[in-house]
Amino acid sequence: MRRGKTKPISAILTALLIAAPSVAQSDLPKPRTWQDDGDYPADAAAKSKTGVTTVQFDVTEKGRAENCAIIETSGSGKLDGQSCALVLRRARVTPAKDEQGRAVRSVQTRKIDWRKMAN
């Protein structure tokens, strides 16, 4: 092991904590209209499928959604699949900022409520 060339683990952890994006939950922007009546899958509507899908996705430095995943199902595969499709296609959010005020990647979790559209 070469001495003097390695950083102690505490210095590395401190650097990671300082570089981590910080966004308070209350600071998350409200989504625009990411879904409308035309987005309800016809076969799910015909079977009276409703529910709430919880999705998690990455937000790029430019506010675009990537890598959407279902973390809580609505109980309908069609509604869940449509939820991620809509988020990836329509979601535009304010990116998180680092300590220097630069936009950085982050992760967000949102609920897509299909119950309101079924009525």
TrEMBL record:
A cellular component term, taken from the record's GO annotations: membrane
Compartment annotation: Membrane
Domain of life (superkingdom): Bacteria
Membrane topology value: Single-pass membrane protein
A Pfam family this chain is assigned to: TonB_C
Family annotation (InterPro entries): TonB/TolA_C, TonB_C
Domain TonB C-terminal: 25-119
Keyword Membrane: yes
Residues in the signal sequence: 1-26
Transmembrane spans: none
Single biological process term from Gene Ontology: transmembrane transport
SUPFAM superfamilies: TolA/TonB C-terminal domain (SSF74653)
Keywords: Membrane, Signal, Transmembrane, Transmembrane helix
Protein name: TonB family protein
Lineage per the UniProt record: Bacteria, Pseudomonadati, Pseudomonadota, Alphaproteobacteria, Sphingomonadales
